[in-house]
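Model: Ready when you are.
Researcher: Fold this.
Model:
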Amino acid sequence: MNLQEFFFPVKFFLKTICKKIFLSILSSFGVLWLIVEIGTYFLGETSSIIIGIKEHWLIFLIMGLLIAIIFGKPKFTIGGKLNNRDISVEISIGDFFKQNGALVISSNTTFDTHISKDLISERSIQGQFTKQLYYGDEAQLDMDISNGLQDIQPITLTGKRIGKNKKYPIGTTVRLNPKNKTAYMLAIANINEYGVASASYEDLKQALAYLWLFIGSRGLKDNIVIPVIGTGFSRLPQPREEIIREIIKSYIAACSEFTFSDKLTIIISPSDYEKYKMNLDELESFITHLCKYNVFSNNIERNGQQIET
């Protein structure tokens, strides 16, 4: 965790509470002004009641501060429960690797694992997952991935490449269990001969659809924790909030066919939240609407679920 993420909760709280305090104080003095104006109109400026209210203006200031403190606590987590289903959806600002549940790790269609400046960045989710937290190096990870892919026929890529030359379909998923932690490595992007990854919005939709199917047939019924996949080294151009909405819609659509998880948690990194000025209130409204009014189509296909909103 870098210093920006370490101090984020304090900065977020202060920023939110200061704004709430300012608005609450304005509202309190607005109420005071209205009472004085109405009272003066009916009772006159020399009324003892009006004079007493003016003398006790500090009470309104304190009321504003108390209201801001009580109701101004910032929300780091938002979410909702699907109507008539024991399934919850949550968005949280925090450290992806400190969450409880099965982790979704986005990868490329050749399942490259080598951590270097030319291939898999050490700063990426996959890089952190591999080197810093669960594997230490790529050897054991490569072995676990190979075991998970042994029943899938790849395409052999020709020509000189920085990475591997065995390519698997978008959406191919491998279940990993390092250090008693369940993780699903998901192929979401293609990677060229120079080690540059790229994905399309359709790739994202397809990958998500196959991910839920894989978890439903070969995974554990754990809570699922997923980052805002595709927005980093996969280079998807869509805004992060749009990616989040697509993840939620895809998950709910898959849940209409079979129950494979009771909860989905989407993690936003503190740095992304600040850098891209993400709006949790709008995302909360989206989740509330979708959870309350979700309507599932009657002809959902197993290889690409869609949800009507």
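Researcher: Now this one.
Model:
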Amino acid sequence: MKNLLVLTSFFVGNVLHAQEKQNNPESKKTYWASVSELIFSVADLGNIRLYEDGVINVMEPQANLANPIPRFSAFFHAAQQFHVNFAPFAGMYTGLGIRNIGMINNLNDTLRIKQRAYGISIPLAIKLGNMEKRSYLSLGAEAEYMFHYKQKVFVGEGRGDKDNKTSAWFSNRVNAFNPGVFVEFNFGKSGYFRLKYYLNDFLNASTRQDFKVGDKVMYFTSERSTLFSLTFGKVVAGKKRKKSA
């Protein structure tokens, strides 16, 4: 009997606590938030082939597995998010942002290539958790449009020495539209991390990925260019405006 009373009290207490949260205006509202990010990204190219002056490289006639290198980017990432909380435990957000995303790959022991693009992104995510404390799990999708491309080539062992670079607006070297899906963990106090998978290849398979090494013109082909990213970010909600008397 005593145990039944304890369980009943616990159940009633939880119901009253949930009802109190339902009546809490802090957990049911809309707000804007500013976002900054640090991004680690990596791509899987699979097997690649190197070509020199349009002919397969005689030094590497067989397809070789590319060696991906994690890429870190701190600049320039910024976004504005618009949050809508339906209940104390659920909500959603969308927004608009700009992101620097890309990949680094060793094509062989002495040739490294860095490729990145700036993209404009629009996310849409469902939030589940504690909306009052802003501690929640988000599941979402994001549309991203790549508008500026840059490529750097390094020659030599290890990191090598920079040999040349190329950049272009609205380049056809990358797939301009690249949607992705993500899972995000927000720990309250504005901190979060996000795992994201891009649904399209980063590189445009129909465009030659060429570059110069000294006076030689080279290019490579790859099986794929699947891009993944891990983001550590900070989301800061805007302050409420005080109503004038």
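Researcher: Key takeaway?
Model: The longest strand covers residues 135-155.
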